[in-house]
Give the backbone structure.
Amino acid sequence: MMTENNRLDIAMASLNVLGQPGKDLDRLFAAMQLNGLLLTGASAEVITAIEEFGLHYNSICETYPPAAFETQPPSLNSADTVELVGRLLSLCELIRDAETERILGRLRKHEGKLPEREIIEARRHRDWFVPLLLQECQKEIDKIKQKPDPNEPSSVQGHSSVPFFAFFLFSEWETKESIPFILEGMCLPGEGPCDLFGDGIHEQLARYLAQFLSSDLDRLDEMICDPKVNMYVRWAASSSYPFLVRDKNITLEEAIIRLESHFHKTKVIGEDGRPGTEHCYELSAGIIVNLHQLGGSLKSILGNGNQNWDFVEESIFHRSDSDVTLTESERQKGLLRLPPTRVSDCLETLRHWAAFEQRPKPSSPRTLTSSVPESAHPFERSTPPITSWTPSTTTQSLNATGTIRAAERVPRNAKCPCGSGKKFKQCCMRG
């Protein structure tokens, strides 16, 4: 019996049966499970098609003995069989297309709610959805390429979250066909990658690259060293090396050599030993963190005091750690604490994101009266409350475009958005 939750499943199964070689009558009888459709939630077009099929089915089959339909294909004449097969094919294709559009529509506009049911349905028909998701990704990439200003975030209108969800599904499904699409999106200039993948860049890109580019390290290195690529994408790319070492896809020695090379290729140092104006200090700090995790020689890379590395924020890397050499046991434990390279269950991964947390609706405020003077309250605040800010899975939220991403990036020397009055780098950036 078809229900609202399995309408797509039965339509796809019936199309599969009707597409198999064999007699029309045998295929028709095998697909008769479509009889007794549930119309709840179907579009008007689908409802009309289902009802019309039922009318034609009944008008044809009522002229045959009822017993003929119970255990074996009925003895329909060829003309009736051809008509029913054709109508059933058209009906199944219409249902498939309508349900597919419903699923893609929810993935495009999630509205702060994780589309679990739609992702589960897409999982059941992976081969059907992979090319559709790739097509949606390419469409969004082309749309961003047409933006006059690559650093301008996408507007709410027309923005799609399909690339974000597809990014996690492709890892779960091990979809190698996704590589050129994901890399093209990640190498878009300015805010393009953030518009497409949101906080997936911070949380998933390093794992994705380690999963799919383990045999193409040159492509990975190009991304790290390309100054036209978004800095956070480059940082995530360098962070794929610990995963590659942990998974034994590259030796520890080669990873350290490559990361040290990337550090010296990407840093820009002025005459006074300080970083140049084009220096991506976060990228350098990220490479240092990865080298430290792998047990690389930080003293050699940071220099012997000839260069000023104060630009490397203590919140990212403590320079005192350059004197600390990890033991083999500590290094191994650190690598084992990394999450799995492949996403085994994207729903389980995304359920814990704050952007999808189902918060209770606030109740109507009530007016409370007190005999205690307002100035006598012991917890009176003279400044706004301070809230922490960190681009982690516990603070991910929706930006104006609906993309899953961290709170808007704040320049390190700007006032902290929490309202404390301090500089961002001295306040929540350290959180």
Remarks:
- The mean pLDDT is 77.
- Strands lie at 397-398, 404-405.
